[in-house]
UniProtKB/TrEMBL annotation:
Keyword NADP among record annotations: no
UniProt KW keywords: DNA-binding
GO molecular function: DNA binding; DNA-binding transcription factor activity
Family: Belongs to the AHA1 family.
PROSITE patterns hit by this protein: HTH_ARSR_2
Name the record gives this protein: ArsR family transcriptional regulator
Domain of life: Bacteria
Domain annotation HTH arsR-type: ranges: 1-92
Family matches, as Gene3D superfamilies: 3.30.530.20, Winged helix-like DNA-binding domain superfamily/Winged helix DNA-binding domain
Amino acid sequence: MSDELSTVFKALGHPIRRKILDLLKVLPRTTGELNDHFPDVTRYAIMKHLNILEDGHLVVVRREGKYKRHFLNAVPLQEMHERWVGKYMQYTAGSLLNLRRAVQDKGGDKPMESAKDFRIEQEIFLDAPREKVFRALTEKVEDWWEFRIAPKGVTSHFTFEPVPGGQFTEKWGDKEGAVWGNVYYVNAPEEIRLQGHLGLQGAVNSAYTYRLLEKEGGTLLQLSHTASGVIQEQWEEEHSKGWEYLLGTLLKKYVETK
């Protein structure tokens, strides 16, 4: 952990790199788009800053055609907050469950949200073998997945079928329950893809992917979550924080200590 924190602190140690993170918090950008915000800095220097941010796992890079798009990865910042301050999610612990599609206020004059989309890319290093992480994401998800759709005070149970056509479900009572995701691709233990609303309501198409890469004796977990449709403005931030908490705190603690 100390070595990981050293790279994070190094990445945060320059004002240009902190500004880059500020820009990526607003939306993902290519190297050229970032360079446009620093007219007095060479493209080569921006690339060096991005490499340092990537080494600190604060930036996730995804290739799109001939371009590389950079995404903010706030998980290392959350780990720092967890270590010295407290739960990063204490004021939004139920964010994935308490999302509501508000199309009217009390006066009934709030307009319908227009079609939007978002894309969340996160990475977290787990000090555990890839096979163990894959089992935790699928067979053992009930042991660490904290969010619930079941009514407050009602005990619910999770099942995850890591096969094409399988489902990630939460059930309570005799016939009550919810589907968190439908599995449409599996390449165990490297990748699993699902379609599921994850608390989003209404006319929304949502999908998420776990990719597991063996790295430095552990596992680099890459999350991709995309959604499009009638999306409220706060949903992207709430889901981003929710994933940070689920994967960067709960799953990480589970696989590294169990």
